[in-house]
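Q: Predict the bound structure with zinc ion.
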Amino acid sequence: MNCDCVEDIRTKMVDHFKPEAGNDVQAECGGLGINLRTGGMSLSIPWTIRSSARGFSSAKGKSTYMVASFCPFCGKSAAAEPVKPAEGK
Ligand SMILES: [Zn+2]
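A: Predicted complex:
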């Protein structure tokens, strides 16, 4: 992620639930994890795939996920930002 949206929203969630859940309320974004391809943090959306084929036919099906390429809150690209070259001489 190249923005602070998840942390900003986490803080807002704590404030939102504090009256109902108390001052020790905590909020955690379940879709946030380390992207093993980029090494950065990414938001992912879980999916369950079911069919009669082997590996997909149990009641649990097969779990997979989609990684968001852009922040769903502000639209900024989630890809690693290119390293800027040093100011030239
Ligand atoms: Zn964002």
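A: Residues 5-67 form one domain.
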